[in-house]
Specification:
By secondary structure, the chain is α/β, with parallel strands linked by helices. It folds into 2 domains: 17-205 and 301-319, P-loop containing nucleotide triphosphate hydrolases (Rossmann fold, 3-Layer(aba) Sandwich); 208-296, Rossmann fold, CATH 3.40.50. Helix content is 30%, strand content 23%. Strands 3-4-2-5-1-6-7-8-15 form a 9-stranded mixed beta sheet, with helices on both faces. A 4-stranded parallel beta sheet has the order 12-11-13-14. α4 (82-91) crosses α9 (277-283). The protein starts with a helix and ends with a helix. The model has no long low-confidence stretch (mean pLDDT 94). Keywords: ATP-binding, Kinase, Lipid A biosynthesis, Lipid biosynthesis, Lipid metabolism, Nucleotide-binding, Transferase. It catalyses: a lipid A disaccharide + ATP = a lipid IVA + ADP + H(+). InterPro entries: LpxK (IPR003758), P-loop_NTPase (IPR027417). This is Tetraacyldisaccharide 4'-kinase.
């Protein structure tokens, strides 16, 4: 009732949202954790970075700092949070990366830092309605779609299902490869999109190579390793590795796990470690793991990439 009332007050204009005279794209979800926001933000960065001055703004979940932080050469997962630090590590030559739990204050500071910003990507901000994004992309997983879920604490939704109507695009993420048209139609019937809404389906595309800070190897060369994950749902990765007939043990930690001294001591005893790119951002600071720690990159694979890209680029063109 509280979240319903809050959204209603925003809808009626009794609670105010701040709009901006430049494009703002929000990527978020209705549920807690694990829908694929980080790879979607990276997809948008790759789409936009060559033609626009891009900035990302995240909350900076579990960081050790407060207030506004702009990523720089001294930043770390501790100062930014693991996901924003990942954005900075991969795209620092092309974009600005900032964190602030207060999105209005974050955008204000970004503009002060760089007045030529042409697009702000808001990470995990679907419920942050004090900022009125010009374009909303909402994610929901194939395995646990929002229309089959209910609000916390009984279910995993942050707000009622009707919140999906605020989205311009709904992406069903982590779909199995070769999802049939009949399965897609069945999902569409349950989403019941408005006429102005577009629904897409995406899957996870894993690299065939793994990386350390200084080298890379073919994934097929790995065997008898320890898989370390601290993400919301490691099942797709585990299944992918099993399909590739790789032998490994799995140390499965909770999402955004803060690795303790005891954890690192235990990992030092392992001969070879494979982890996710997000976990790598927290683990790469430990020099004793340097030569044995590999990460496996992932990317979003859209089912109708050209149409999705056109919708985003049309918004950029029409909002400028």
């Amino acid at each position: 009732m509280v979240t319903w009332l809050r959204n209603k007050l925003f809808d009626l204009g009794l609670l105010k949202s701040v709009s901006y005279n430049f494009p703002v794209i929000c990527v978020g979800n209705l549920s807690v954790g694990g829908t694929g926001k980080t790879p979607m933000i990276e997809y948008l960065i790759r789409l936009l970075k060559d033609d626009f001055a891009v900035a990302t703004l995240s909350r900076g979940y579990k960081r050790k700092t407060k207030g506004f932080q702009l990523a720089n050469k001294n930043s770390s997962a501790a100062s930014l949070g693991d996901e924003p630090f990942q954005f900075y590590s991969k795209f620092k030559e092309n974009i600005l990366v900032a964190v602030d739990a207060d999105r209005i204050n974050g955008i204000k500071n970004l503009i002060v830092q760089e007045s030529s910003i042409e697009i702000v990507l808001l990470d995990d901000a679907f419920q942050h309605r004090k900022v009125k994004a010009g374009f909303n992309i909402m994610l929901t997983t194939f395995e646990k779609p929002y229309f089959s879920d209910i609000v916390l604490p009984t279910g995993d939704l942050r707000e009622p299902r009707r919140g999906a109507k605020r989205a311009d695009i709904i992406v069903v993420t982590k779909c199995p490869k070769g999802l049939s048209n009949s399965d897609k139609d069945s999902i569409l019937k349950q989403i019941k999109p408005n006429k102005n809404q577009h629904v897409f389906f995406s899957s996870i595309s894993y690299s065939d190579k793994v990386f350390t800070m200084e080298s890379k190897r073919n994934l097929s060369e790995l065997n008898d390793f320890t898989l370390v994950t601290g993400i919301a749902n490691a099942n797709p990765l585990v299944e992918f590795l099993k399909v590739n007939k790789l032998e490994f043990e799995h140390l499965n930690f909770k999402d955004h796990h803060e690795f303790s001294i005891e954890d690192i001591e235990a990992l030092k005893q392992k001969e070879l470690i494979l982890t996710t790119e997000k976990d790598f951002m927290r683990l790469k600071q430990y020099a004793e793991l340097k030569d044995k720690l590999f990460y496996l990159p992932i990317q979003v694979k859209m089912d109708n990439e050209a149409t999705f890209n056109k919708l985003v680029l049309d918004y950029m063109k029409n909002d400028n």
